[in-house]
């Protein structure tokens, strides 16, 4: 029996907490949801529950006592908590605010849906990207036109790269997929090709063991520094790995990985889930608009 994973919902609106809780519990098995009505209560719980910590925090922006942005800053500046993935779920679509959240290390920013199906899609994204759980989807997840998007795949295993490419192209035939197989070739790509790409890179899939974890974590840091130092639009960097070791997961999140996907032993399920992640991420997560 799988151990339950704990998710914190932080929101002063009881209806929004209820909708998000119901969606999570409908989609994800073996989940425990705890609710808080403001950021200060969240921080108190994190401090009091060490070393036990949630697998994920879903947090509103505008709350009394301590806002979501203020709580986010404290979490990501605390070495004991910065590895906990945080998703802001807010009614605000203000571009400056969204950019500020990404600058402060938020894993994803989601504008609150207006219908319950939108909360279901959030739960589906959360399930795969953050909780290593693969729910059965009703119908095909992929179905939108992604001809204006580019994905960078950094993977040193040629067989895995070919399966990933095939999975991504299934359901998203017009997407542009760029492959690099090493730290050096990725850095060369960043410095010489990245900024001029059209359409721009809107997701990076990075194998953690490239071939070892130190190289993967080092490259993650270099990618984050490259984007920040040039003031480029934030791009999700999703870590891929066969490892489900807590240390690998926590250090990836501490290094500002957007999400962490475990490659399963079932290749079809594993690489098909990557395609679903891309579709769900782009369908639910809001990034600052490119200029």
UniProtKB/TrEMBL annotation:
UniProt domain Response regulatory: residue ranges: 6-127, 150-278
Sites bearing 4-aspartylphosphate, chain numbering: 60, 207
Keywords: Phosphoprotein
Alphabetical list of SUPFAM superfamilies matching this protein: CheY-like
Name this protein carries in UniProt: Response regulator
């Amino acid at each position: 029996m799988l151990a339950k994973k704990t998710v914190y919902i932080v929101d002063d609106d009881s209806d929004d907490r209820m909708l998000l809780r119901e969606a999570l519990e409908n989609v994800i098995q073996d989940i425990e949801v705890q609710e808080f009505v403001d950021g200060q209560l969240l921080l108190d719980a994190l401090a009091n529950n060490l070393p036990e910590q949630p697998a994920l925090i879903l947090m509103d922006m505008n709350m009394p006592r301590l806002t979501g942005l203020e709580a986010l800053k404290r979490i990501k500046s605390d070495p004991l908590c910065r590895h906990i993935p945080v998703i802001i779920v807010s009614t605000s679509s203000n571009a400056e605010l969204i950019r500020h959240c990404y600058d402060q290390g938020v894993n994803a920013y989601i504008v609150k849906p207006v219908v319950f199906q939108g909360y279901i899609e959030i739960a589906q994204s959360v399930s795969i990207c953050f909780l290593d759980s693969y729910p059965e989807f009703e119908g095909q997840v992929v179905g939108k036109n992604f001809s204006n998007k580019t994905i960078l795949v950094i993977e040193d295993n040629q067989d895995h790269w070919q399966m990933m490419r095939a999975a991504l192209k299934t359901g998203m035939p017009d997407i542009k997929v760029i492959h690099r197989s090493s730290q050096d070739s990725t850095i060369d790509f960043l410095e010489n090709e990245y900024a001029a790409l059209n359409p721009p890179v809107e997701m990076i899939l990075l194998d953690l063991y490239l071939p070892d974890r130190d190289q993967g974590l080092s490259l993650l840091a270099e990618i984050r520094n490259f984007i920040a130092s040039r003031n480029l639009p934030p791009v999700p960097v999703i870590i891929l790995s066969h490892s489900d070791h807590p240390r690998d997961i926590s250090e990836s999140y501490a290094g500002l990985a957007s999400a962490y996907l475990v490659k399963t032993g079932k290749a079809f399920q594993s690489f098909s889930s990557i395609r679903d992640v891309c579709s769900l991420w782009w369908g639910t997560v809001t990034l600052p608009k490119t200029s």
